[in-house]
Amino acid sequence: MAAVRHAHPAATVSVWAQDEHRLGLVPVVRRVWAPKGQRPTAHVERHYQWLYVYGFVRPATGQSWWCLLPRVDTDAFALALTAFARDEGIDAAHRAVLVVDRAGWHIAHDLAVPEGVHLVLLPSYSPELQPAERLWPLVDEPIANRAFPDLDALEAVLVDRCRTLEADPARLKAHTHYHWWPAEPLPEITQ
Fold first, then answer.
1. Do 77 and 111 meet the contact criterion of CB atoms below 8 Å apart?
2. CA–CA separation, 86 and 167 (whole Å)
3. Under a CB-based contact definition with an 8 Å cutoff, are residues 178 and 145 in contact?
4. Chain segment 171-184, per-residue pLDDT in tens
5. Which of 50, 63, 61 is CA-nearest to residue 24?
6. Considering the entire predicted model, what is its pTM?
């Protein structure tokens, strides 16, 4: 954060966290209440097809940006970064420090990172430090204990869920804003 501020003193800097979540036709199973003596059942058909949710969250404000892609790799991550930077207005004057884990596609040498995005890597094996990890139980709520006939049906529910979460920044802030998360500095005024 300090290095970005020092290198770009007149720019506004926001701090974001990003992670990916795999969902597919294998259902998300959760516990449910049932009358005493009765065992609840969840009817599922296992199909191994996947969809990936890319979640970007700005913990200080609860602002979020979402993307659904069919895979996770360096090219898909670069595509998500480019769309994120375009949609959020990130450029030379509006920079984003993006906290990510050390997944292979985050640290790839051939990763194309858009202008204004600065990746900060978390320590290895530390998901508890990643605020974006706390997004996934919220994303899973409408699909838990449900079976979907195909990825299109799952995608429709996920798109609706991501739009709902994007419209509720207070809820996302409550889930992702850790007490130690860095404050976003104001740009320096040059005279």
1. yes
2. 19
3. no
4. 999 999 998 888 87
5. 50
6. 0.87
